[in-house]
Amino acid sequence: MTRVFVTGSADGLGLAVGQRLIEQGHEVVLHARNDERAAATREAAPGAADVLVGDLADQQQVRALAEAANASGRFDAVIHNAGVGGGAGGDALLAVNVVAPYLLTALMQRPDRLVYLSSGMHRSGRAELGPLEGRGSLSYGDSKLLDAALAIAVARRWPDVRSNGVDPGWIKTRMGGSGAPGDLDQGAATQVWLATSDDAAALVTGRYFKDSAEESVETAAADEAFQDELLAVLERVTGTPLPA
Ligand SMILES: NC(=O)c1ccc[n+]([C@@H]2O[C@H](COP(=O)([O-])OP(=O)(O)OC[C@H]3O[C@@H](n4cnc5c(N)ncnc54)[C@H](OP(=O)(O)O)[C@@H]3O)[C@@H](O)[C@H]2O)c1
């Protein structure tokens, strides 16, 4: 049995991943933005061990969430799934898609496995760190390029942790829309596999997956100097270093 924490699991892929992990007999802690969403999450996934609460757009709440997660015990795997789409605006993209996964990674007890939700749209993203420091704004694709780079940066910094990025495919969710070709089973499978499987192919680090198969990441996200700069800027803007 694996103990797994899934962020942004009140709906969509996060909830689907949580439900599948529970079905497989794992101990699953879910996460919602507030008490009302947490109640809905408990109803949708009654087998969850717990549902932690915190709005990822609010840095103080992200820090409190990390504390609550640590108080609940170390996780074997953490899936950084929560995300907002382009319609949410630059500030939310930055806070929820980029700063929150970094801060939770830095503040939570180190798990054995980390999974970061990126997207095929990272391929049209810019490797641009200015928006993190208030210069210019971030697009959805930009934020997902930073997620892919963060997964690999953490893998390099922490060789004892398996840290990988995932493109779940274009999936029918609130974000993906009803016209998306993929269903929730397809959209959840790679994250569940990376978090729990002992297949040799899942026991790797610093990679990027789609449909449980490795893909290359966009060159900018694979650039080690860019990854180091990303960690340095995130450390500066949050005042929280990624522990060595
Ligand atoms: N669906 C796709 O086609 C697709 C493709 C590529 C990548 N992705 C990535 O996959 C991940 C999941 O996407 P999805 O399609 O499942 O999206 P979704 O259906 O919109 O679900 C997003 C989840 O994140 C939570 N969330 C958003 N902002 C939050 C905040 N400030 N605090 C706490 N929780 C917050 C939402 O909570 P509420 O329900 O309370 O809002 C919801 O549970 C995202 O990172 C997305 O970028 C999705």
Can you tell me about this structure?
This protein is of the alpha/beta class. It has a single domain, classed as NAD(P)-binding Rossmann-like Domain (Rossmann fold), CATH 3.40.50. It is 43% helix and 14% strand. The chain contains 8 helices and 8 strands. It has helices at 12-23, 35-44, 59-72, 90-107, 140-157, 184-196, 219-222, 224-238, and strands at residues 3-6, 27-32, 50-53, 77-80, 113-117, 162-167, 208-210, 213-215. The chain has an 8-stranded mixed beta sheet with strand order 3-2-1-4-5-6-7-8, sandwiched between helices. Helix 3 (59-72) runs parallel beside helix 4 (90-107) and helix 4 packs parallel to helix 5 (140-157). The longest helix has 18 residues, at 90-107. The relative contact order is 0.15. Bound molecules: NADP nicotinamide-adenine-dinucleotide phosphate. Residues 8-14, 33, 37, 55-57, 81-84, 96, 117, 119, 168, 170-171, 173-176, 180 line the site of NADP nicotinamide-adenine-dinucleotide phosphate.
The bound ligands are: NADP nicotinamide-adenine-dinucleotide phosphate
Largest sheet, in brief, is: 8 strands, mixed
Distance between the ends:
28 Å
Q: Tell me the radius of gyration.
A: 16 Å
What is the spatial order of strands in the main beta sheet? 3-2-1-4-5-6-7-8
Oligomer: single chain
CATH superfamily: NAD(P)-binding Rossmann-like Domain
